[in-house]
Design brief:
With 348 residues, this protein is α/β, with parallel strands linked by helices. It has one domain (21-32, 48-345): Metal-dependent hydrolases (TIM Barrel), CATH 3.20.20.140. It is 34% helix and 10% strand. It contains twelve helices and nine strands. The chain has helices at residues 21-27, 73-83, 93-96, 111-122, 143-152, 169-181, 208-217, 240-249, 265-274, 292-297, 316-324, 330-345; strands at 49-51, 56-58, 61-62, 126-130, 157-162, 187-189, 221-224, 255-258, 278-281. The strands form two sheets. A seven-stranded parallel beta sheet has the order 3-4-5-6-7-8-9. The chain has a two-stranded antiparallel ribbon with strand order 1-2. Helix 4 runs parallel beside helix 11. It starts with 20 loop residues before the first helix and ends with a helix. This is Amidohydrolase-related domain-containing protein.
Length: 348
Amino acid sequence: MSDKNDINTNNVDSEAQDLPRRGFFQATLAGIAGLAGIAGLSHQAAAEVQDKKRQRKFQVIDFRCRPPLESFAGLFKMRLDYIAQRPTVLGNPATHGKVPDVVKMVGKPDAMKAWWAEIDKAGIDKVVVAGRITEDPNNTMDGAALLKMEKEYAGRFYGITPVNLEIDMKQALANLEKELAAGIRGATIEPGYRQKGGPTTMDNAEFFPLYELLQDRGIPLQVQTGAFAGVDNWDEPNQIWRMDSVMKKFPKLQLILGHGGYPRITEALALALKWPSVVISSDVYTFWPGGQLYQQNIEMLQDQFVYGSAFPFGNFDTTLEQTLALPLSDQAMEKYLYHNAVRLLKLS
């Protein structure tokens, strides 16, 4: 570890040139953005990361990461076969540096143990995992699986349940109501990957009953955005003006932009400026091309950013080390790393 930041916890020491676009999206349809547990995981009361430069510690919630299980195999394959094999270097040490061994352990018996070891080593207190629903059982994690994991790793693991856009919305909402009653704390949708009726956008009126329910309950909704947010391309899933139209109808909806609305960064910032209940989860894109705009505005919108590594896209420890080096006030850093996520998940 560099001497910029000393990371520890309380308890534990190409695009492949010949890869066709359509084949790429099909291969990672549910893997872009499973779970088996390990017995006896130590439940840390309050893991912390030590920032030597500031001479203080911070608690951390990683709001966007995925475990090394078959349910998310496509995402781990993308790290190994796409990001790490780019014909030109992607100058981010968290994504183009050394690939942790756990990234290569998807589905193996000790994979979850190794995953938690990476989390502990980085000094991360809690993690948030967004589920998803597809026709591929190897790319699906529903609310029931997430709730099971929450019980197994109580106090450290929180799930964001996927709303099934492939079925009638009344039935999807009935399923969501049961999961909310069981304790789920957030929902997620991926309109750009809908299969029934084809990819769609967030302003689809079919989804309005969902937004009304979540707004009334005060439950956050994460929407998939980013450079890989659609089967064909990134255009429509990232059209911020559509989200603005939704927010006009549901102004108190707690809307989280998973992957930060990238590449429409300026528009995403404008959306957050206009609507105080919009939250930006720029995660790995914070340190990808153009991510300086996110970095420069965390301080100004300090109640509307949440931290995430997007693991396996970004290594847990290196991403956090880069984040601690940002020129943020202690107050903004505390909110970004921990308190904004606590508020969204209603953990206090």
